[in-house]
Inverse folding.
């Protein structure tokens, strides 16, 4: 499956809120009627960061949630682009291109497990909202982060909040003391119809390893939202290739921006992915 780009559009809207959530997490809310009406769970938008030419390229962000004609994004100031986004004020303009990418295959029946690592929380509110619109209520979110302040607040995963959120922190300041993958064993006992994961690529690799080592049947729908350095965001620069396994087991490449960012976890070449260099984007 590849992205349907027919609804992607340039759209500039007013920033409404830039909220500091703690631990460096920020939630940016803007009035973007087109994106709010067309974003599907797991799709993303390329956001222009600042007025000048540095950074030159837009930066990709999951559409975290939509409500009426507004969209929310969750991010952290990690570099030049995100620092500029973090300085936006209500009334400033946000220049977007989206929706882009191939999102999650949303199931119609649970149980569903969502595994979030750090800022991997971003696509889940929109996904959970769509699952619930389809009548799926049995949703367990496993939310992991380095420390308590960096956990996306449990009540924001679903509005209104009904999903069960189990938390894990590396330093034990909230929830389970350890990795979010430690929580997978119990989650698999419910024999989920779908497991969706999002987080740094190494964490996604650890999720897949844990699932395989558990010996449990893999959920029929097993998908992860992957990261790659992105230039264009719509399949022309070829800068976001990720290693996958073709049907005959041979190695192949797919584009994170149009074949993904959401891909079946069974198809990803996790070893090849872990050997890729880090993102370095102009
Ligand atoms: C499809 C997709 C959706 C994303 N959604 C979100 C989101 O919802 N929230 C969020 O906080 N981040 C998200 N990211 C990552 C985000 O795009 C990067 O953090 C951002 O581009 C960094 O820009 P910068 O100019 O601030 O940092 P830079 O100065 O460009 O880089 C700073 C650091 O970020 C890393 N980085 C740069 N680009 C990427 C990238 N594309 N993916 C991962 N790491 C990168 C670099 O290796 C470096 O360590 C997403 C990435 C992709 C591919
Ligand atoms: S970002 Fe340009 S091809 Fe994917």
């Amino acid at each position: 499956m590849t992205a349907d780009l027919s609804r992607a559009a340039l759209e500039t809207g007013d920033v409404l809120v830039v909220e500091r959530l703690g631990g460096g997490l920020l939630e940016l809310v803007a009035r973007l009627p087109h994106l709010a009406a067309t974003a599907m769970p797991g799709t993303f938008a390329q956001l222009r960061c600042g007025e000048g030419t540095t950074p030159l390229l837009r930066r990709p962000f999951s559409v975290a949630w939509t409500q009426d004609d507004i969209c929310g994004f969750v991010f952290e100031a990690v570099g030049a682009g995100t620092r500029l986004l973090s300085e936006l004020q209500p009334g400033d303009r946000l220049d977007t291109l989206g929706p882009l990418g191939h999102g999650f295959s949303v199931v119609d029946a649970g149980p569903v497990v969502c595994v979030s690592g750090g800022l991997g929380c971003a696509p889940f509110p929109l996904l959970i909202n769509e699952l619930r619109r389809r009548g799926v209520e049995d949703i367990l979110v496993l939310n992991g982060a380095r420390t308590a302040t960096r956990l996306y607040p449990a009540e924001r995963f679903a509005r209104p909040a009904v999903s069960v959120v189990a938390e894990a922190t590396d330093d034990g300041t909230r929830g389970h003391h350890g990795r979010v993958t430690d929580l997978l064993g119990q989650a698999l006992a419910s024999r989920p119809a779908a497991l969706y994961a999002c987080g740094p690529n190494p964490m996604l690799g650890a999720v897949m390893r844990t699932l395989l080592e558990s010996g449990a049947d893999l959920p029929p729908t097993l998908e992860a939202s992957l990261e790659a350095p992105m230039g264009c965001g719509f399949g022309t620069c070829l800068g976001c290739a990720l290693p996958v396994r073709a049907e005959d087991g041979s190695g192949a490449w797919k584009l994170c921006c149009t074949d993904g960012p959401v891909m079946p976890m069974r198809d990803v070449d996790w070893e090849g992915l872990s050997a890729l260099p880090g993102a370095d984007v102009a």
Observations:
- The helical segments are 33-38, 80-86, 124-133, 184-188, 201-214, 270-274.
- Residues 44, 55, 59-62, 73-76, 78-82, 101, 119, 122, 227-230, 256, 261, 278-279, 281 surround flavin-adenine dinucleotide (ligand 1) (CB under 6 Å).
- The CA atoms of residues 110 and 216 lie 17 Å apart.
